Amino acid sequence: MAQSSPYDFDIYQPRNPKASAYYKCVESHFEELEQVWDDMYKSRYGYWRTYVMTVIYKYLDCGDLHFGFARVRCEECGHEYLLAFSCKRRHFCPSCHQKRVIEYGEWLLTNVLKDVPYKQWVFSIPKRLRIYFLYDRKLLAKLSICAWNVITAYLKSTVPYDDAVPGASIAVQTYGDFLNFNPHLHAIVSDGCFLKDGCFQTASVFMLEDLEEAFQYEVLKMLKKEGKINDAIIENMLSWHHSGFNVYIGDRIEPDDKAGLGNLARYIIRACFSQERMVYVPAKKSDAGVAKVIYTSKDRKIRKVFTALDWLARLVTHIPSRYEHTVRYYGYFSNKSRGMRKKADTDDTIPTIMPNELSSNKARQNWARLIQKIYEVDPLICPKCNGQMKIISIIDSFDIIEQILKHLNLWDIRNHDPPEVEPVYIPELTYVEDSNYGNSGSQIPVFDEWY
Description:
The protein is of the alpha+beta class. The chain has helices at about 20-40, 40-45, 50-60, 95-110, 125-135, 140-155, 210-225, 230-240, 260-270, 310-315, 335-345, 360-365, 365-375, 400-405; strands spanning about 70-75, 80-85, 120-125, 165-175, 180-190, 190-195, 200, 245-250, 280, 290-295, 305, 325-330, 390-395.
C-alpha cells in the first residue's frame, strides 16, 4: 500500500511485486509452460511436477492484499498501513527467499557454528552423472552424504584421537550461472575436529587429489547401489584422463571474521537467479514476435538470450520439492549432537560465533527485522512522526478483506494486468577485475546481486 508521504529511501515502502519484469514474465507464460511441457521439455528436464504449479500460484499471490494482510498502526499518531501476506516459497519468490537467506545466516552463527576456524568446501560432479539427479531428486540427499563421508574421513585422519569428530553444514545447489542443471555442494566445515573433552584440534594440510578420488569413489558406489549405473559405466569413467569430479577448499576463515562467515552462509543458499541480471522482452516488443529473456552472467561478461518459455523451464527445475531439505548438518553440528549437548548442558563449552541476543518479543517481529536487514529500512517506524508502529490485527476473513479494500478503493486491483515494464533496458556489459571474489579476505564469490 503506497504511503501518503513523499518517497523516502529511509521509510519502508511495502513492495509491489507485480511491477517487476520477473512477475510479468511468470504471469504471462506459466500456463503455457505447463501445457507444452510434455512435448517440449520432458525429455530434457523430466516429468512435470505438480508442486511447481503450487509454487507459481503462491508466488503470484505473494504480496496481494486480497489474500489477507496485517494492519500496522503507529502508537503515536495513528497512521496505518496494510502489510500483505507473503508466500514463503523457496528460490522462486525473490523476496521470500532472500528473507530465508538472512535467517539461515543468523541461525548458523548464533546456534550452530562454534568459535573455531572454518573452511569452505565445494564438491562437483561430471556432466555425465547430472541427469540422474535431475530425474531423481532424492539422490541429492545421498550426494550430500557422499561429501560428508569424504570430509569426516579426511579430518579424522589428521587428528590423533579416536573420539574426534568434525562439524559441517552442507547445502545443495542445483544451478549453474545460466540456470543449467548443475548439482553441486557447498559446505561450511570446521577446520579440524571437536573432542569429547570440549577441546578442538586443528587439521593439517589438505591433499586435494586424494580427496577428489575419494569423492569419486563415494559417488560412483552410491549410484551403483541405487541402480543408476553399472560396472561398465564405472569402468569407462575411471579410464577418463580427467574424472570430472572436483573438490575445492577455500582459505581458512577465522571465527572472529563474522562478516566473512555470514557472507559465506548466505552465499551457499543464495537464490538460483537474480532479477537484476534479467531483462524480459514481451512478444509484442520482440522482433521475432516471441517473448524473450536476456540473462547476464554473474561476472557481467556474457549475455545469453532465451525464449521466455525456455528460461522458465530451466528455472522451475530448481524449485525444491515439498519438504525437500537443501541444507543438512553433520557430525558435531548435527541436530542429534546439538540436542544431546543441550540436554547435558554442555553445548556452551565452546561458545557459538555470535551470542543469540534475540528476545522472544523480537522473535515475534522477525519479519520486520528481516526487512530492515535486507532493505535497510524499518517497517515499524512511522513515516509521518517517526513513532513506533505495531501490528494491531491480522485480517484473513474474506468478507472483512473485501470491506476494507473497497473502503480504501483497492478492491479488484488483482484482476488488472501488471504494469508495463517501460522501457525495456538492456544494460551494457561491465568488465570488472577479480570479479569472482570480494575484498573481505574470506574467498567468497561476490553476490551483490542477491540483495
